[in-house]
């Protein structure tokens, strides 16, 4: 039944491997697990799917070992968890001395003759699952229902059925707090087992199953309700807000677009319309450079510093209380247990949620850190808090660092060599800053010497084309053809409103190819992630035009909502695409980063959920307010107390 079972060290040394009869090559799925889960700090749930296989794994942090079992995902193997635990225990106990005395050398030179033990454990596990397996269907007479009288099944008005009353009680007790999505604690698991054992005396297996199923649905419904958390005030007002530009003014002339019905032509911008200095923002910057996000991390975590420096013990309080207080946190040469970590993790989870990380993701992150640390031997003079914090910090940096780096300038040059324009599509809901950030990216590309054609494919929202036209004029005024050897650096391609966006994008791309533009930036209409017809249209636009880069534009202001948008956009692109391998989102533009202070959690949520990189960060309303993501800066902001 199993395809394979392998044991390897975290350093990558395969110690032992069992391969089933039908088993495919072990390497590809295990490599995928290492790349996508273990290295990406997504180890929250111990299970991973790769093509037709399900992989389950367990980490031994004390000896730095990984145990992985692979089986066909269509199978429901109930014994796998037990098997992996048993193998872990037996393997570790059998070779404990080898690991302890010889360390890494023990792994290199060790001979791990484990086949017989493994086969025995596998047999035992299979047997134990069979013992419990088929339940004989009971007759009606045997069921509890047959013993009920008709009378007791009638519900009288005003009298609530017992089951419902019980549910209500449960709801009340869980009312506040986010525990609904939290990982069940050991205590609660034990409670459940106990109560299940108690129930067994009266209930049959089928009824227990039914009860559990109901419980499961109830919990999921609750979790679903909770994840739809109330939106922040800023989000309440959906739709387009009137935009007030720092660099603009509100006189009627500026707002009058009636005489500007150009079609794809670039016009010089009247000088009185905007102040170029204000449009540019920072005057001291290096033109064309995409600066990293900056963040000043403050010197917090003083308690950790004190403990890490054993020469200066903090025995300020004096007396035994202070002394014990200090020693309490020290776990020198002791291996970390779940109980040690739980209080710290709980605090970390709340901290992450307070920083706008989506609740479910905060739970998974903490779970992943716990799995990584459990059993690990801590150094002397290290607190549990600092160990957990450091592991979490590393995990967060890892998550923010993309598996695939997007280097737009390099890719544009590559497209140039192939004599074709590099095409970027922007998508997202309304008002998140698609057009504004598209203009900023145009500006950055122009400063790097690339010409840009902006394709106005938002043919839906009134004013969308005019908004892009204004940007085009301003960009042209900042970079007139005279300063680029007579070359028009930015132009708008538009066909007005109500037309098919996919068609306009296609025309724009071929126009750009003929006119020698380096980049085409396709603006699309804002749409809600749940709007099926509009999502189909977007999938079509992407499928037909095959852009080099599909960027999802999302606001940093939102937590759970941003994750919902991103997941649904990706899913809709997959669902509505006609292609066999649908084209999904390649990267993220995180906007309005300047408005969130240190509540930077959306950055973590978005990258965690999609594994896609944040390519650009919008940090304001001028053309220079564009940054690249600096993972360390974001994590510093996130960890700040
Ligand atoms: P679209 O509907 O997605 O195209 O959104 P717009 O580009 O029209 O932007 C909506 C509003 O957000 C405008 O008022 C922009 O000036 C503002 N905006 C866009 N990006 C940023 C940003 O990075 N920081 C701030 N503070 N505001 C931004």
From TrEMBL:
Residue segments, region Disordered: 156-202, 220-286
Keyword field: Endoplasmic reticulum, GTP-binding, Membrane, Nucleotide-binding, Receptor
Pfam families: SRP-alpha_N, SRP54, SRP54_N
Membrane-protein topology: Peripheral membrane protein
Chain intervals with Polar residues compositional bias: 248-265
Keyword Membrane on entry: yes
PANTHER family reported in the protein's UniProt record: SIGNAL RECOGNITION PARTICLE RECEPTOR SUBUNIT ALPHA (PTHR43134)
Name of the protein in its database record: SRP54-type proteins GTP-binding domain-containing protein
């Amino acid at each position: 039944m199993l395809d394979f079972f392998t044991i390897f060290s975290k350093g990558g040394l395969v110690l032992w491997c069992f391969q089933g009869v039908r088993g495919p090559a072990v390497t590809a799925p295990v490599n995928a697990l290492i790349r996508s889960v273990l290295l990406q700090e997504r180890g929250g749930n111990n299970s991973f799917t790769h093509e037709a296989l399900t992989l389950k794994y367990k980490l031994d942090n004390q000896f730095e070992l990984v145990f992985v079992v692979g089986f066909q995902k269509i199978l429901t193997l109930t014994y796998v968890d037990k098997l992996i635990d048993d193998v872990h225990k037996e393997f570790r106990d059998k070779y404990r001395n080898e690991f302890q005395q010889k360390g890494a050398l023990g792994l290199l030179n060790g001979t791990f003759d484990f086949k017989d033990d493994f086969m025995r454990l596998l047999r035992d596990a299979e047997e134990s699952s069979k013992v419990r397996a088929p339940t004989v269907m009971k007759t009606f007479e045997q069921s509890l229902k047959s013993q009920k009288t008709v009378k007791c099944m009638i519900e009288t008005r005003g009298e609530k059925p017992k089951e419902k009353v019980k549910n209500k009680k449960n709801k009340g007790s869980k009312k506040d707090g986010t525990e609904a999505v939290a990982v069940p604690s050991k205590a609660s698991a034990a409670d459940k087992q106990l109560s299940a054992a108690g129930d067994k005396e009266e209930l049959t297996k089928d009824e227990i199953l039914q009860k559990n199923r109901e419980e499961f649905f109830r919990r999921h419904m609750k979790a679903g309700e909770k994840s739809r958390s109330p939106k922040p005030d800023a989000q309440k007002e959906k739709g387009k807000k009137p935009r007030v530009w720092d660099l603009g003014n509100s006189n009627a002339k500026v707002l009058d677009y009636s005489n500007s019905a150009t079609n794809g032509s670039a016009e010089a911008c009247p000088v009185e319309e905007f102040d170029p200095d204000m449009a540019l923002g920072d005057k001291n910057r290096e033109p064309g450079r995409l600066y990293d996000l900056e963040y000043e991390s403050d010197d917090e975590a003083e308690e950790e510093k004190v403990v890490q420096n054993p020469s200066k013990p903090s025995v300020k309080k004096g007396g035994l209380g202070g002394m014990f207080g200090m020693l309490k946190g020290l776990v020198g040469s002791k291996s970390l247990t779940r109980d040690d970590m739980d209080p710290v993790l709980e605090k970390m989870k709340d901290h992450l949620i307070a920083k706008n990380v989506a609740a479910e993701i905060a739970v998974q992150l903490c779970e992943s850190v716990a799995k990584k640390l459990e059993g690990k031997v801590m150094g002397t003079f290290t607190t549990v808090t600092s160990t957990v914090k450091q592991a979490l910090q590393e995990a967060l940096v890892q998550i923010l660092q993309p598996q695939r780096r997007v280097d737009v300038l390099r890719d544009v040059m590559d497209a140039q060599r192939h004599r074709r324009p590099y095409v970027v599509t922007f998508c997202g809901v309304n008002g998140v800053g698609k057009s504004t950030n598209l203009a900023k990216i145009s500006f950055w590309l122009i400063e790097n010497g690339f010409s840009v054609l902006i394709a106005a494919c938002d043919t839906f929202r009134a004013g969308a084309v005019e908004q892009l036209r204004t940007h085009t004029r301003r960009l042209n005024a900042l970079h007139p053809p005279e300063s680029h050897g007579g070359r028009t650096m930015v132009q708008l391609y538009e066909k007005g409103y109500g037309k098919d966006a996919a068609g306009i994008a296609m025309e724009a791309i071929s126009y750009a190819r003929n006119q020698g533009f380096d980049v085409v930036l396709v603006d699309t209409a804002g749409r809600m992630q749940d709007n099926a017809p509009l999502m189909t249209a977007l999938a079509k636009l992407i499928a037909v035009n095959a852009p080099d880069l599909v960027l999802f534009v999302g606001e940093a202001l939102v937590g759970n909502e941003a994750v919902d948008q991103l997941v649904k956009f990706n899913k809709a692109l997959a669902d509505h695409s006609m292609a066999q391998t649908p084209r999904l989102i390649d990267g993220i533009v995180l906007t309005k980063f300047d408005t969130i202070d240190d509540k930077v959690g959306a950055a973590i949520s978005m990258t965690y959920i999609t594994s896609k990189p944040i390519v650009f960060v919008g940090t304001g309303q001028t053309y220079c307010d564009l940054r690249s993501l600096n993972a360390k800066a974001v994590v510093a902001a996130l960890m700040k107390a």
